[in-house]
Structure formats: C-alpha cells, structure tokens
Amino acid sequence: MADSGVIDGPGRKDEIERAKSEGKDLTKEEKQRLRKEKKQQKKIKEKKDDKASQENEKEKKPVTSAAPASQPPTQPTVQKAPSAVPATAPVSVPASEASVPADKPTKTKAELKAERRARQEAERASKQTKKGETGQQAATSKPKAPPSDLQPVVKRLPEHIQVDNPDVLKKLAKKLERQQIPLRSDYGYKVSLFSHLHQYSRKAPLTQQLSIPSTVIHPAIVRLGLQYSHGIVAGSNARSVALLHAFKQVIRDYTTPQNEELSRDLVNKLKPYISFLNQCRPLSASMGNAIKYIKKEISNIPSNCKEDEAKNKLLNCIESYINEKIILAGVAIAKCAIEKQKISDGDVILVYGCSSLVNHILCKAFEKNRKFRVIVVDSRPRLEGKEALRRLVQKGISCTYVLISAVSYILPEVSKVFLGAHALLANGYVMSRVGTSQIALVAKAFNVPVLVCCETYKFCDRVQTDSFVSNELDDPDDLIVTRKGTTPLEGWENESSLGLLNLVYDVTPPDFVDLVITELGMIPCTSVPVVLRVKNVDQ
Amino acid sequence: MDYGTIKYLVEYFRDQMKKDPDMASAVAAIRTLLEFLKRDKGETILGLRESLTSATDCLTGVDSSVAVSSGGELFLRFISLTSLEHQDLSRCKKVMEERGELFLEKISMSRTKVAKLCHTFIKDGAKILTHSYSRVVLRVLEKAAAEKKRFSVYVTESQPDAAGQHMAEALRKLNVPVTVVLDAAVGYVLEKVDLVIVGAEGVVESGGIINKIGTYQMALCSKAHNKPFYVVAESFKFVRLYPLNQQDVPDKFKYKADTLKTAKNLSEEHPIIDYTPPSLITLLFTDLGVLTPSAVSDELIKLYL
C-alpha cells in the first residue's frame, strides 16, 4: 500500500502542485493522498538522525526559496527542485540509507526510494514556503523572478544580489566552500535601502584567508582580484582587458588532465576563478559579456583538436575580442563622433569623471585640429576627474575643473555633454558612475544635448529602472577622510544611528540622453534592444 | 563627370519636375538617376557607384532639399545590393536597372499607402492645422474627403514663399473649408484645433523631422496645448542624419541651392528649414506603417544595414 502510494506519488504530486498553483481546490482524493504521504514522511523523519534531518531541512529551504514561488507555472519549480536535489541527495541519501536499511529489501530500491522521498520533501517544503511566502517572507526576500518563465526559450538572466536573505547567503557559502574559495564577510552598518548589497572593507582583503601558494586559484587571478579590490585596476574597459589578459595566462598554463576534455574541463576550471573575482569586486556587465564569450569559445572547441592547437585558438580568440570589441570599437566611435560633426569648433564640452573612451575621443578630435575646450566635473570620494584632467591637459586641451556641486553654475556655458557608460541596459537606461544621472538631469533642464559613448560589448540584457535594485557599495571608510586630511567621521561605527553610504553606480533614464555613439553608428537610447536583437541574430 | 552629362541630368530633372508637379522631388531625382544609369558607359561597378554619387551631388546642387539626397542614397543602396553576383558588367547593369524600376514603382505607391493609413485618424467634424504646402498631406486630406468625412483646415501662410496660399487653393478645389492664418497666429489658433498634420522633407535617425521653417514652433505649441502632432512622410525621406539641435543641421540643407551658391555671408540669410526633435512628435505615418519616433531608428537600421 505504502509502496504503490510512493511509486505514483511524484506524478500525482506534480498534478497537485499544478492544481494548487492554479487556485483550484484539492479534491477529497488528493487531500487524502497528501495526508498519507505526510504520514509516511513523518515516519521516515522519526527514523532519521536528528542532525541529518536538520541538514536536510536547511538544504531544502534554499533550494525552494530559490524557486520563484510566485509564478503560476510550477514546472520550473519541479524542474529546479530535482536538479538541485541531486546536489543535496548525496548528503541525504547516505544518511537515509545508513539509518533506514531495514525498511527496504534491496539497496538499489532504497536508493530509488530515497530519491523519490527527497523529491517529495522538496515539493512539500515548496508548498509550505508558498503558504508562508504570501505571509511575511515577501517583505524580506524579494522573489527572484526570472522573466524567462513566460518565454518559450528559457534564457537565464543574472539574478539580483540578495545579501539580506540568509538562505541565499547560505547557498552562496556552500557554493564557495565547494570551490574552495574563502567567503568575504560584509563590513559595517549598511543603510537599510541597500542592505541587499555587499559592502566590503578594503582593509580585509580576500587573500588574507588564502594559503600561499594557493592550489585552487591561479596566481594571475589572485593578483587580478587584489588589483580589483584595491581599485588599482578601475574603469570598465580596463577591468575587462585585465580580465582577458589574466585568462590568457591561465589558458597558457593549463594542461588537460587525463580522461578529460579541454572544452568541458577548462570551463569548470574557470568557474572558481570567476567566483573569486566576484568576491573581490562584483563583476561588471562588460566583464560578464567577455566571460560569456570565452565560455562559448571554449565549449565550441572540437573534441578531436590537439591541446596546443586548441590553446592557440583560444588565445587568438581572446586577442581578437580585445582588439575588435574594445580597441577598434573605440577608434570607430572616435571617428564617428568627429566626422559627423559632433565636436565642432567653438564647442564647450562637459565630461564627468574619467572615461577612457571619452578621453580618447577628445584627444583624437584635438589632433584633428578642432577648437574646443573641456570642463571636467569631478566628485568625491574617488576624484577620478583629476586623472581625466591630467590626460587632457597633457595633450594640450584647455580644461576647466569643477566639482559636481557647481554643475548648475557652469552649465549655461556648456554646448554639449559627453558621458561614458559602464553598461547600457535593455530598456535604454544607462548605468554609469554615480553622479552621471544628476548631470544628465541638469543638462536636460538647460536644454544641453547629452551624448553617451559606449561600445556594444557593454550592452547587457538586464532591465533596471532605478539605482537600488542592483548596485555596488564601496568601502564606507573612504568617506571618512576629507580633502584637508581631517577625519571628522572617524568613529562612525560606534554611532548606532549613523550609516555611511558609498555608492558606485547609478542609472540614467533614456529621456535625458539624446544620442548614444557606438561602433555601429549613432543610435537613440531607445534603440539599444534593436542592437541587442541584431547581435543575437548574428551569433 | 563632364559638363555635358551634368547639363543633361539637370535638364532631365527639371523636365520631370515640370511634367508632373505632383511628384516628389526625390522621385524625380531617382528617375533622373535611373536614366543616368541606363546611359552610363562605365566599365566597373566602383566607377558606376562613384558616378552615381556625383550625379546625386549635382542634383542636390539644383534642389537642395534633404529628400533629394536621401532618395539618391537609398536608390544607390537599393540597386547595389545584388551588384556583386554577376560576372558580366552589362548583365549587372541590367539587374540594377530592373531593381531601379522596381524601386521607383514601390515609391510611387508610397503616398497612397500613407494616405490609407492616416485618413482614419481624421474624425468627422475635425479641425486640422497644417503647415505650408505638402503634397502628402494634400493626398491624405483628399482621401479623407473621399471617405465623406467633414473637416475644416487651417493653413499657415508660411512665408517667405507664401506656399500656404497654394495649399489653400488646392483644398478649396476639394470643397474643404479652409482658412489661411499668419505664421505668428499658430498659438492663437491652436485652441480651436483638434490635431496637427504636417509633412516632412526629411526624417532623421533620432525620429525627428526636417521641414519648412515654422514647423518647430508649431510642434512646441501643440505640445503645450496637448494636441497630437502627426507627421506624414514616405520612407525614401529617411536620412542618415542625427542633429542634436537646430545648429547641428548641415548648412547645405538649410538654404536653397541658389542661395548657397550666390550668398556671400550665410549668417545673413534665412534658413528655410528647421529641425523638430522627436519628443514633440506623436506619430509618424509612413508607407512602412504607423511609427512612433523611437521606431524610426529601428526602421532605418533595417533599411540601411
């Protein structure tokens, strides 16, 4: 009786799940079946070891909370649960097997039963979380809803960070433990609106917890991670290029182990490196696209290819990616801006912060003998404008330097605003250094055209309408030191009601941007999804 | 290009314009280019393209409107899409000529398509405001009148050439009640009006339009009054320009061709066109369909890439 119930249990469970989610009432039959299964599971639970059962519960929770319970189709839930379950199954199966050998006649049948049981428990727990989800959980854990559920092609988009959700954190900790990468802990009090983001301190680098020499992480990657976390390598293009160079070194030093294929093993080797870099400093959109490209290239290597040949091919691919998408794209953008008269004689151009692309365009225009002058706007605590100022003045361009608080004062003099971008989102929003949207807003109020310069490899599929959902928090201790060297905020951690917020990015709506210059030409901000579509078709 | 060919081209162009005053200047230009293609004795494809480009340039010298240059560029692009398939130059040219004829046929139907799309937006009893003389707008209003809709029209005088009077006469022939207003009276008359329809000389990449001077003012006033501002334009008027403001429009489009040649100081001359940014335009009616200004870039990418 119990056996037959268990065998067709999962099938009925799916139905019941579906029925529940569709809002239909469970029939009496289904309710009886549920009760029976609950009794069975209770029996099994009592026989299991306490610790093992606790572990099971904890592991089930992150699995199920990861599933978007608010979506009507539960197929993804059911699919995700079994896919995550094999990961937890190795833990649960030995426990159940060890404690319940007497119940099952043969070992193989026991394994099957354990698997089915695990699946049922997952579904039961998911039902419970669904009941609880409508209650209190909605406040703290935003359901990570991939829009892919409603499309025929399941396209996984990067999920938003949720640091204040302990289940997600545990899942992340488990993943890092598996990859043998130390987990970086958050530092200091976080402003409540941004409590879902990481906030690290520069005084506690990730590498303090690493052994030397680290066997898991390649030294080039360790170096890169440190350079990121200390801000030595900063700026979207610089970070992507450094990443690609480090990966080239990794590929050069890589040897395929026995009985493994390069195309699969190398991708698996890269995963812990990417987690490590993510821990040092969250990945940018451009880095994400570069990594996607590399992974695609690696997995496209045919299996009959010799190792040296394959490595050479990959190195060439990376070289050509850097060359085409970053260097040549910059040259094309500069050419487009200059030839189409976007920089004309007598122009007063306002730039913000230090964008390598914008500096390149201005230098090229100056070489072509355009007469213009530049106003560099800067902001604390990074003061990146000083670097831009240095580069432009070296070329001989006449510059003015102001802080962002003076923007509305000098804007009547300005004829155009040139901004760089960190990423361009699929709904046309521009993600850039914090302060950019403020400048775009003031420029719009003064009717000054705003031009954004961005290569197409920075276009990303994400959609965001505000700067809160996904951002980066920098070290709050950066805000303590003022220009004169005084530190009035030194003891900020001791003040319970004081929080320091050092945001890195913000998001500018497309209404404030008049023109985006890419290597494909000049497009309005709303045409970014068209470019993405054309690019996807090409690939 | 030798002087004889230039003269021939210019004469042919002028002839075409005289023969059919209803034809758009771009269509006449394309006809001229097609004729030029038939008579061209070039030996290479590259040489052919170059001579076609220089022919377009010299036509722009006669009529400096945006539409002529955009029409020429589109013609070139349309015919050269298949130019590399055949080995034999004469066969290539034949294919090009066929495609040219096809292109010409397509665009001569475009005004009818636009009229079909737009006339449904004119409701019975509507009061329409329009600017200067536009043959596309005339065609739309003709179609609406043919559908037995009752509407009245306000036309601006549109100095310095008083083209608005021309439009008013044409409308009177259709038995449409029409009033000619001063250019300065646009703000005054807008409260009585239900919708504004204008034509365009060129549609730019941002989704904005280039049209007779006074259009920008009209668009600003209709935005302030919350009246819909519709633009009717054929697809061959889409041009690869991206002006950021009025100053950014190249001088060669701003002034008439004769003025460009004879004037000593351009800053003393009055521009005859202005640029209307996409934020002021509600909808664009083209033979590719009814588009919002942000969709224009999408269509341009499809046309040109």
From TrEMBL, chain A:
Instruction: List where Basic residues composition bias occurs.
Output: 33-45
> Could you list the residue ranges that cross the membrane?
none
Of the GO CC terms on this record, one is: eukaryotic translation initiation factor 2B complex
Which superkingdom, per the lineage? Eukaryota
Query: Which InterPro entries does UniProt cross-reference here?
Result: IF-2B-related, IF_2B-like_C, NagB/RpiA_transferase-like
Q: Which Pfam families match?
A: IF-2B (PF01008)
Q: Would the keyword Cytoplasm be found if you checked this record's keyword annotation? A: yes
Q: Provide the protein's localization.
A: Cytoplasm, Cytosol
Q: Which UniProt keywords apply?
A: Cytoplasm, Initiation factor, Protein biosynthesis
Which biological process terms from the Gene Ontology are attached to this UniProt entry? animal organ development; central nervous system development
Which residue stretches does the UniProt record annotate as biased composition, category Basic and acidic residues?
A: 10-32, 46-62, 104-133
User: What SUPFAM superfamilies does the record tag this protein with?
Assistant: NagB/RpiA/CoA transferase-like
Ranges of biased composition (kind: Low complexity): 76-102
The residues forming a coiled coil are none
One GO MF annotation is:
translation initiation factor activity
Q: What residue spans carry the region label Disordered?
A: 1-151
- Does the keyword field hold Cytoplasm? yes
Function text: Acts as a component of the translation initiation factor 2B (eIF2B) complex, which catalyzes the exchange of GDP for GTP on eukaryotic initiation factor 2 (eIF2) gamma subunit. Its guanine nucleotide exchange factor activity is repressed when bound to eIF2 complex phosphorylated on the alpha subunit, thereby limiting the amount of methionyl-initiator methionine tRNA available to the ribosome and consequently global translation is repressed.
> Could you describe the subunit structure of this protein?
Component of the translation initiation factor 2B (eIF2B) complex which is a heterodecamer of two sets of five different subunits: alpha, beta, gamma, delta and epsilon. Subunits alpha, beta and delta comprise a regulatory subcomplex and subunits epsilon and gamma comprise a catalytic subcomplex. Within the complex, the hexameric regulatory complex resides at the center, with the two heterodimeric catalytic subcomplexes bound on opposite sides.
Q: Which family does it belong to?
A: Belongs to the eIF-2B alpha/beta/delta subunits family.
Its protein name is Translation initiation factor eIF2B subunit delta
From TrEMBL, chain B:
Superkingdom classification of source: Eukaryota
Subcellular location, record wording: Cytoplasm, Cytosol
Q: Does the keyword Disulfide bond apply?
A: no
What SUPFAM superfamilies has UniProt attached to this entry?
NagB/RpiA/CoA transferase-like
One GO location term (cellular component) = eukaryotic translation initiation factor 2B complex
Q: Keywords, A to Z?
A: Cytoplasm, Initiation factor, Protein biosynthesis
Q: Name one GO molecular function term.
A: guanyl-nucleotide exchange factor activity
Matches recorded under PANTHER family: TRANSLATION INITIATION FACTOR EIF-2B SUBUNIT ALPHA
Q: How does it assemble?
A: Component of the translation initiation factor 2B (eIF2B) complex which is a heterodecamer of two sets of five different subunits: alpha, beta, gamma, delta and epsilon. Subunits alpha, beta and delta comprise a regulatory subcomplex and subunits epsilon and gamma comprise a catalytic subcomplex. Within the complex, the hexameric regulatory complex resides at the center, with the two heterodimeric catalytic subcomplexes bound on opposite sides.
- Name it: Translation initiation factor eIF2B subunit alpha
Q: What is the lineage of its organism?
A: Eukaryota, Metazoa, Chordata, Craniata, Vertebrata
